[in-house]
Automatic annotation (TrEMBL):
Gene3D superfamilies: Glycogen Phosphorylase B. Keywords: Transferase. This is Glycosyl transferase family 1. Residues 21-208 form the Glycosyltransferase subfamily 4-like N-terminal domain.
Amino acid sequence: MNILLINNYFPPEIGAASHLYYYLAKELQKRGHDVYYLTGIPRYNVDKETYEEYKKRGKVFIENEEGIKLIRVKLPYIERHKFIRRGIEHFEIAYKMFHYTKSIFKGLRIDVSLVYSPPLTLYWTAKKLRVKGHIPFILNVQDLFPQEAIDSNIIKNSFIIKFFKNMEFRAYETADLITVSSQKNKEFVEEVCKETKKVVIVEHWIDENEITPGPKENAFSNKFNFHNKFVVSFAGTLGKLQDIRIILNSAKLLEDYKEIVFLIVGDGIKKEESEKIAEKMKLKNVIFVPLQPKNIYPQILNSSDISLATLEKEVETPTIPSKILSIMSAGIPIIASMNLNGDAPKLIEKANAGYAVPAGDYKSMSKKILLLFKNKELKEELGKNGRKYIEEHLSVKTAADKYEKLFQEVIKTRKLRHF
Protein backbone atom coordinates (compact mmCIF):
# COMPACT_ATOMS: atom_id res chain seq x y z
CA MET A 1 0.00 0.00 0.00
CA ASN A 2 0.94 3.66 -0.38
CA ILE A 3 0.38 5.00 3.13
CA LEU A 4 0.40 8.61 4.27
CA LEU A 5 0.99 9.46 7.93
CA ILE A 6 0.03 13.00 8.96
CA ASN A 7 1.55 14.24 12.20
CA ASN A 8 2.74 17.61 13.47
CA TYR A 9 5.90 15.98 14.87
CA PHE A 10 8.87 13.90 13.69
CA PRO A 11 12.46 13.42 14.95
CA PRO A 12 14.73 15.18 15.73
CA GLU A 13 11.83 16.53 17.79
CA ILE A 14 11.73 14.73 21.14
CA GLY A 15 8.36 13.62 22.41
CA ALA A 16 5.76 10.90 22.42
CA ALA A 17 4.00 11.98 19.23
CA SER A 18 7.13 12.08 17.08
CA HIS A 19 8.45 8.72 18.29
CA LEU A 20 5.13 6.89 18.10
CA TYR A 21 4.62 7.54 14.39
CA TYR A 22 8.33 7.23 13.60
CA TYR A 23 8.29 3.69 14.99
CA LEU A 24 5.14 2.85 13.03
CA ALA A 25 6.47 4.37 9.80
CA LYS A 26 9.69 2.33 10.06
CA GLU A 27 7.78 -0.88 10.69
CA LEU A 28 5.34 -0.33 7.80
CA GLN A 29 8.22 0.53 5.49
CA LYS A 30 10.01 -2.69 6.49
CA ARG A 31 6.91 -4.63 5.46
CA GLY A 32 7.17 -3.35 1.90
CA HIS A 33 4.71 -0.47 2.00
CA ASP A 34 5.56 2.94 0.52
CA VAL A 35 5.32 5.28 3.49
CA TYR A 36 4.88 9.05 3.14
CA TYR A 37 4.99 11.23 6.25
CA LEU A 38 3.57 14.77 6.18
CA THR A 39 4.92 16.96 8.98
CA GLY A 40 6.42 20.33 9.82
CA ILE A 41 10.04 21.36 10.20
CA PRO A 42 11.46 20.61 13.69
CA ARG A 43 10.15 23.10 16.27
CA TYR A 44 9.24 21.17 19.41
CA ASN A 45 11.97 20.33 21.95
CA VAL A 46 14.72 21.39 19.56
CA ASP A 47 17.04 24.38 19.77
CA LYS A 48 16.35 27.51 17.71
CA GLU A 49 19.47 26.91 15.60
CA THR A 50 18.11 23.57 14.36
CA TYR A 51 14.83 25.26 13.44
CA GLU A 52 16.62 28.06 11.58
CA GLU A 53 18.66 25.55 9.54
CA TYR A 54 15.51 23.73 8.38
CA LYS A 55 13.71 27.03 7.77
CA LYS A 56 16.24 27.95 5.07
CA ARG A 57 15.20 24.98 2.95
CA GLY A 58 11.97 26.52 1.71
CA LYS A 59 8.28 26.30 2.49
CA VAL A 60 8.05 22.62 1.52
CA PHE A 61 10.67 19.96 0.75
CA ILE A 62 11.07 16.17 0.72
CA GLU A 63 13.62 14.11 2.66
CA ASN A 64 14.32 10.38 2.70
CA GLU A 65 14.52 9.10 6.28
CA GLU A 66 15.35 5.38 6.47
CA GLY A 67 13.17 4.74 3.42
CA ILE A 68 10.34 6.97 4.72
CA LYS A 69 9.42 9.75 2.28
CA LEU A 70 9.28 12.75 4.59
CA ILE A 71 7.35 15.79 3.35
CA ARG A 72 8.26 18.78 5.54
CA VAL A 73 6.36 22.06 5.62
CA LYS A 74 7.78 25.32 7.00
CA LEU A 75 5.87 26.26 10.15
CA PRO A 76 6.51 28.97 12.77
CA TYR A 77 8.59 28.56 15.92
CA ILE A 78 6.39 29.58 18.85
CA GLU A 79 7.41 29.79 22.51
CA ARG A 80 5.45 27.41 24.77
CA HIS A 81 4.12 30.06 27.11
CA LYS A 82 2.31 31.89 24.27
CA PHE A 83 -0.93 29.92 24.61
CA ILE A 84 -3.10 32.12 22.37
CA ARG A 85 -0.52 32.09 19.55
CA ARG A 86 -0.15 28.32 19.91
CA GLY A 87 -3.92 27.96 19.64
CA ILE A 88 -3.93 29.94 16.39
CA GLU A 89 -1.00 27.85 15.19
CA HIS A 90 -3.16 24.71 15.17
CA PHE A 91 -5.22 26.19 12.33
CA GLU A 92 -2.10 27.45 10.57
CA ILE A 93 -0.57 23.96 10.66
CA ALA A 94 -3.64 22.36 9.05
CA TYR A 95 -3.90 25.03 6.36
CA LYS A 96 -0.22 25.03 5.36
CA MET A 97 0.13 21.24 5.40
CA PHE A 98 -2.56 21.09 2.73
CA HIS A 99 -1.94 24.21 0.63
CA TYR A 100 1.86 24.00 0.56
CA THR A 101 1.80 20.36 -0.59
CA LYS A 102 -1.04 20.33 -3.15
CA SER A 103 1.34 20.13 -6.11
CA ILE A 104 3.27 17.27 -4.49
CA PHE A 105 0.20 15.16 -3.82
CA LYS A 106 -1.12 15.79 -7.35
CA GLY A 107 1.54 13.44 -8.67
CA LEU A 108 1.27 10.78 -5.97
CA ARG A 109 -1.05 7.82 -5.57
CA ILE A 110 -1.93 7.46 -1.90
CA ASP A 111 -4.21 4.64 -0.78
CA VAL A 112 -4.95 5.71 2.79
CA SER A 113 -3.87 8.22 5.43
CA LEU A 114 -3.53 8.02 9.21
CA VAL A 115 -3.82 11.32 11.10
CA TYR A 116 -2.45 12.00 14.58
CA SER A 117 -4.62 14.16 16.85
CA PRO A 118 -3.87 16.55 18.51
CA PRO A 119 -3.82 18.97 16.91
CA LEU A 120 -7.42 18.11 16.11
CA THR A 121 -7.35 20.56 13.19
CA LEU A 122 -5.30 18.09 11.13
CA TYR A 123 -8.52 16.21 10.38
CA TRP A 124 -9.25 19.13 8.01
CA THR A 125 -5.98 18.51 6.14
CA ALA A 126 -6.85 14.83 5.73
CA LYS A 127 -10.39 15.71 4.65
CA LYS A 128 -9.13 18.08 1.94
CA LEU A 129 -6.68 15.44 0.68
CA ARG A 130 -9.54 12.94 0.59
CA VAL A 131 -11.61 15.28 -1.56
CA LYS A 132 -8.71 15.98 -3.93
CA GLY A 133 -7.22 12.50 -4.13
CA HIS A 134 -9.99 10.14 -2.95
CA ILE A 135 -7.82 9.16 0.04
CA PRO A 136 -9.78 7.67 2.96
CA PHE A 137 -8.42 8.59 6.37
CA ILE A 138 -8.26 7.16 9.86
CA LEU A 139 -8.24 9.69 12.70
CA ASN A 140 -5.95 8.45 15.47
CA VAL A 141 -7.14 10.21 18.65
CA GLN A 142 -4.25 10.13 21.10
CA ASP A 143 -5.32 12.92 23.45
CA LEU A 144 -8.92 13.94 24.06
CA PHE A 145 -8.91 17.54 22.92
CA PRO A 146 -10.61 19.79 23.92
CA GLN A 147 -11.61 17.85 27.08
CA GLU A 148 -8.09 17.71 28.55
CA ALA A 149 -7.68 21.45 28.01
CA ILE A 150 -11.05 22.08 29.66
CA ASP A 151 -10.21 19.86 32.67
CA SER A 152 -6.90 21.63 33.21
CA ASN A 153 -8.45 25.12 32.83
CA ILE A 154 -6.39 25.94 29.74
CA ILE A 155 -9.68 26.66 27.97
CA LYS A 156 -12.29 28.44 30.13
CA ASN A 157 -14.33 30.62 27.78
CA SER A 158 -17.72 29.02 27.06
CA PHE A 159 -17.76 30.26 23.45
CA ILE A 160 -14.33 28.76 22.74
CA ILE A 161 -15.30 25.50 24.45
CA LYS A 162 -18.41 25.27 22.28
CA PHE A 163 -16.37 26.06 19.16
CA PHE A 164 -13.87 23.26 19.81
CA LYS A 165 -16.59 20.82 20.88
CA ASN A 166 -18.26 21.39 17.51
CA MET A 167 -14.93 20.87 15.75
CA GLU A 168 -14.43 17.64 17.68
CA PHE A 169 -17.82 16.35 16.51
CA ARG A 170 -17.08 17.32 12.88
CA ALA A 171 -13.68 15.61 13.02
CA TYR A 172 -15.17 12.36 14.32
CA GLU A 173 -18.08 12.54 11.90
CA THR A 174 -15.79 13.17 8.91
CA ALA A 175 -13.23 10.40 9.54
CA ASP A 176 -13.67 7.08 7.77
CA LEU A 177 -12.54 5.35 10.96
CA ILE A 178 -11.34 6.45 14.40
CA THR A 179 -8.69 4.71 16.50
CA VAL A 180 -8.15 5.28 20.22
CA SER A 181 -5.67 3.85 22.70
CA SER A 182 -7.96 2.42 25.39
CA GLN A 183 -11.45 1.30 26.33
CA LYS A 184 -12.38 4.44 28.25
CA ASN A 185 -11.15 6.64 25.41
CA LYS A 186 -13.33 4.54 23.09
CA GLU A 187 -16.36 5.16 25.28
CA PHE A 188 -15.67 8.89 25.37
CA VAL A 189 -15.31 9.20 21.58
CA GLU A 190 -18.39 7.05 20.97
CA GLU A 191 -20.38 9.37 23.21
CA VAL A 192 -19.36 12.30 21.01
CA CYS A 193 -19.78 10.75 17.56
CA LYS A 194 -22.65 8.32 18.37
CA GLU A 195 -21.14 5.68 16.06
CA THR A 196 -19.86 2.68 18.01
CA LYS A 197 -18.75 0.66 14.97
CA LYS A 198 -16.56 3.51 13.80
CA VAL A 199 -14.28 3.54 16.86
CA VAL A 200 -11.52 0.90 17.21
CA ILE A 201 -8.94 0.38 19.95
CA VAL A 202 -5.29 0.28 18.90
CA GLU A 203 -3.23 0.47 22.07
CA HIS A 204 -0.13 2.62 22.34
CA TRP A 205 2.99 0.97 20.95
CA ILE A 206 6.74 1.22 21.20
CA ASP A 207 9.78 -0.07 19.35
CA GLU A 208 10.81 -2.62 21.94
CA ASN A 209 14.25 -2.89 20.30
CA GLU A 210 15.04 0.79 20.80
CA ILE A 211 14.39 0.94 24.55
CA THR A 212 15.57 -2.26 26.21
CA PRO A 213 16.79 -3.32 29.66
CA GLY A 214 20.43 -2.35 30.04
CA PRO A 215 23.23 -1.91 32.56
CA LYS A 216 22.89 0.77 35.21
CA GLU A 217 26.48 1.74 34.57
CA ASN A 218 26.46 3.74 31.35
CA ALA A 219 27.65 7.11 30.04
CA PHE A 220 24.71 8.98 31.61
CA SER A 221 24.97 7.37 35.06
CA ASN A 222 28.77 7.80 35.02
CA LYS A 223 28.30 11.51 34.41
CA PHE A 224 26.21 11.88 37.58
CA ASN A 225 27.86 9.13 39.63
CA PHE A 226 24.61 7.20 40.13
CA HIS A 227 26.18 3.76 40.58
CA ASN A 228 25.65 3.58 44.33
CA LYS A 229 22.38 5.50 44.33
CA PHE A 230 18.76 4.39 44.17
CA VAL A 231 17.53 6.59 41.34
CA VAL A 232 13.87 7.62 41.08
CA SER A 233 13.46 9.37 37.73
CA PHE A 234 10.94 11.51 35.94
CA ALA A 235 11.83 12.14 32.29
CA GLY A 236 9.70 14.16 29.91
CA THR A 237 7.74 17.37 29.59
CA LEU A 238 7.34 19.51 32.71
CA GLY A 239 4.07 20.94 31.45
CA LYS A 240 0.79 22.14 32.84
CA LEU A 241 -0.68 18.62 33.06
CA GLN A 242 2.31 17.00 34.78
CA ASP A 243 2.40 17.07 38.58
CA ILE A 244 5.98 17.85 39.61
CA ARG A 245 5.03 18.99 43.12
CA ILE A 246 4.21 15.40 44.15
CA ILE A 247 7.76 14.38 43.24
CA LEU A 248 9.26 17.18 45.33
CA ASN A 249 6.99 16.37 48.30
CA SER A 250 7.97 12.69 48.09
CA ALA A 251 11.63 13.70 47.99
CA LYS A 252 11.12 15.76 51.15
CA LEU A 253 9.58 12.82 52.98
CA LEU A 254 12.47 10.55 51.97
CA GLU A 255 15.34 13.01 52.43
CA ASP A 256 16.79 11.00 55.34
CA TYR A 257 17.47 8.07 52.98
CA LYS A 258 20.78 9.28 51.58
CA GLU A 259 20.96 6.54 48.92
CA ILE A 260 17.71 7.69 47.27
CA VAL A 261 18.01 10.44 44.68
CA PHE A 262 15.23 11.99 42.59
CA LEU A 263 16.17 12.78 38.99
CA ILE A 264 13.96 15.16 36.97
CA VAL A 265 14.94 15.31 33.29
CA GLY A 266 13.21 17.61 30.83
CA ASP A 267 11.97 21.09 30.12
CA GLY A 268 8.63 22.88 30.08
CA ILE A 269 6.64 25.72 31.56
CA LYS A 270 6.84 24.20 35.07
CA LYS A 271 10.59 23.73 35.19
CA GLU A 272 11.63 27.10 36.58
CA GLU A 273 8.83 27.07 39.15
CA SER A 274 9.74 23.51 40.23
CA GLU A 275 13.41 24.42 40.65
CA LYS A 276 12.45 27.36 42.85
CA ILE A 277 10.17 25.17 44.99
CA ALA A 278 12.93 22.58 45.39
CA GLU A 279 15.35 25.32 46.45
CA LYS A 280 12.83 26.72 48.92
CA MET A 281 12.28 23.23 50.37
CA LYS A 282 16.09 22.85 50.63
CA LEU A 283 16.01 19.53 48.81
CA LYS A 284 19.47 18.03 48.48
CA ASN A 285 18.19 14.77 46.96
CA VAL A 286 16.67 16.25 43.78
CA ILE A 287 18.63 16.77 40.58
CA PHE A 288 17.25 18.72 37.61
CA VAL A 289 18.75 17.91 34.21
CA PRO A 290 17.83 19.63 30.91
CA LEU A 291 16.05 17.76 28.13
CA GLN A 292 18.41 15.19 26.64
CA PRO A 293 18.81 13.95 23.03
CA LYS A 294 16.62 11.02 22.00
CA ASN A 295 19.54 8.55 21.99
CA ILE A 296 20.28 9.35 25.67
CA TYR A 297 16.75 8.57 26.89
CA PRO A 298 17.31 4.76 27.12
CA GLN A 299 20.40 5.43 29.25
CA ILE A 300 18.35 7.62 31.60
CA LEU A 301 15.87 4.77 32.14
CA ASN A 302 18.65 2.20 32.52
CA SER A 303 20.25 4.46 35.15
CA SER A 304 16.98 4.45 37.10
CA ASP A 305 15.68 1.98 39.68
CA ILE A 306 12.12 3.34 39.43
CA SER A 307 10.54 5.83 37.03
CA LEU A 308 7.50 8.03 37.59
CA ALA A 309 4.51 9.18 35.55
CA THR A 310 2.49 11.96 37.19
CA LEU A 311 -0.62 13.90 36.18
CA GLU A 312 -2.46 16.68 37.97
CA LYS A 313 -5.73 15.94 39.80
CA GLU A 314 -7.68 18.00 37.26
CA VAL A 315 -6.81 15.59 34.43
CA GLU A 316 -9.86 13.34 34.37
CA THR A 317 -9.59 12.04 30.81
CA PRO A 318 -8.47 8.38 30.72
CA THR A 319 -5.08 9.10 29.19
CA ILE A 320 -2.13 6.69 29.12
CA PRO A 321 1.10 8.73 29.12
CA SER A 322 3.45 7.22 26.55
CA LYS A 323 6.32 7.36 29.03
CA ILE A 324 4.65 4.42 30.82
CA LEU A 325 5.41 2.19 27.81
CA SER A 326 9.01 3.42 27.65
CA ILE A 327 9.52 2.65 31.33
CA MET A 328 8.03 -0.83 30.95
CA SER A 329 10.15 -1.47 27.84
CA ALA A 330 13.30 -0.59 29.80
CA GLY A 331 12.42 -3.26 32.34
CA ILE A 332 12.12 -1.03 35.41
CA PRO A 333 9.08 -0.58 37.69
CA ILE A 334 6.73 2.34 37.28
CA ILE A 335 4.95 4.36 39.93
CA ALA A 336 2.13 6.45 38.48
CA SER A 337 0.19 9.20 40.20
CA MET A 338 -3.06 10.11 38.47
CA ASN A 339 -6.81 9.62 38.33
CA LEU A 340 -7.26 5.96 39.30
CA ASN A 341 -10.39 5.61 37.16
CA GLY A 342 -8.35 6.00 33.98
CA ASP A 343 -6.83 3.34 31.76
CA ALA A 344 -3.18 3.82 32.77
CA PRO A 345 -3.63 2.39 36.29
CA LYS A 346 -5.48 -0.57 34.77
CA LEU A 347 -2.59 -1.18 32.36
CA ILE A 348 -0.02 -1.08 35.18
CA GLU A 349 -2.12 -3.49 37.24
CA LYS A 350 -2.76 -5.84 34.29
CA ALA A 351 0.94 -5.98 33.45
CA ASN A 352 1.90 -6.12 37.16
CA ALA A 353 4.61 -3.62 36.28
CA GLY A 354 4.44 -1.27 39.27
CA TYR A 355 1.92 0.78 41.22
CA ALA A 356 -0.60 3.56 40.72
CA VAL A 357 -1.46 5.98 43.53
CA PRO A 358 -4.10 8.75 43.63
CA ALA A 359 -3.16 12.02 41.95
CA GLY A 360 -1.28 14.29 44.37
CA ASP A 361 -0.91 11.60 47.07
CA TYR A 362 2.79 12.02 47.82
CA LYS A 363 2.60 9.95 51.02
CA SER A 364 1.41 6.89 49.10
CA MET A 365 4.03 7.51 46.42
CA SER A 366 6.76 7.72 49.06
CA LYS A 367 5.62 4.43 50.61
CA LYS A 368 5.79 2.65 47.25
CA ILE A 369 9.24 4.06 46.54
CA LEU A 370 10.42 2.90 49.97
CA LEU A 371 8.88 -0.55 49.43
CA LEU A 372 10.90 -1.06 46.24
CA PHE A 373 14.01 0.50 47.78
CA LYS A 374 13.91 -2.12 50.53
CA ASN A 375 12.89 -5.07 48.31
CA LYS A 376 15.26 -5.57 45.38
CA GLU A 377 13.65 -8.86 44.28
CA LEU A 378 10.20 -7.26 44.02
CA LYS A 379 11.68 -4.32 42.10
CA GLU A 380 13.30 -6.64 39.58
CA GLU A 381 10.18 -8.80 39.25
CA LEU A 382 7.94 -5.80 38.44
CA GLY A 383 10.48 -4.56 35.89
CA LYS A 384 10.60 -7.93 34.14
CA ASN A 385 6.81 -8.13 34.10
CA GLY A 386 6.58 -4.76 32.35
CA ARG A 387 9.12 -5.74 29.70
CA LYS A 388 7.34 -9.02 29.03
CA TYR A 389 3.98 -7.27 28.61
CA ILE A 390 5.47 -4.84 26.08
CA GLU A 391 6.96 -7.67 24.03
CA GLU A 392 3.72 -9.65 24.01
CA HIS A 393 1.10 -6.90 23.64
CA LEU A 394 2.42 -3.38 22.96
CA SER A 395 5.19 -3.71 20.40
CA VAL A 396 5.19 -1.70 17.17
CA LYS A 397 4.83 -4.99 15.29
CA THR A 398 1.47 -5.59 16.99
CA ALA A 399 0.32 -2.06 16.14
CA ALA A 400 1.42 -2.44 12.50
CA ASP A 401 -0.52 -5.72 12.23
CA LYS A 402 -3.68 -3.95 13.42
CA TYR A 403 -3.23 -0.92 11.20
CA GLU A 404 -2.56 -2.98 8.08
CA LYS A 405 -5.97 -4.62 8.53
CA LEU A 406 -7.69 -1.31 9.24
CA PHE A 407 -6.07 0.32 6.19
CA GLN A 408 -7.33 -2.50 3.97
CA GLU A 409 -10.78 -2.18 5.51
CA VAL A 410 -11.17 1.57 4.88
CA ILE A 411 -9.73 1.30 1.36
CA LYS A 412 -12.20 -1.45 0.52
CA THR A 413 -15.14 0.43 2.09
CA ARG A 414 -14.21 3.64 0.25
CA LYS A 415 -14.03 1.84 -3.09
CA LEU A 416 -17.42 0.22 -2.52
CA ARG A 417 -18.93 3.64 -1.79
CA HIS A 418 -17.54 5.07 -5.05
CA PHE A 419 -18.67 1.99 -6.98
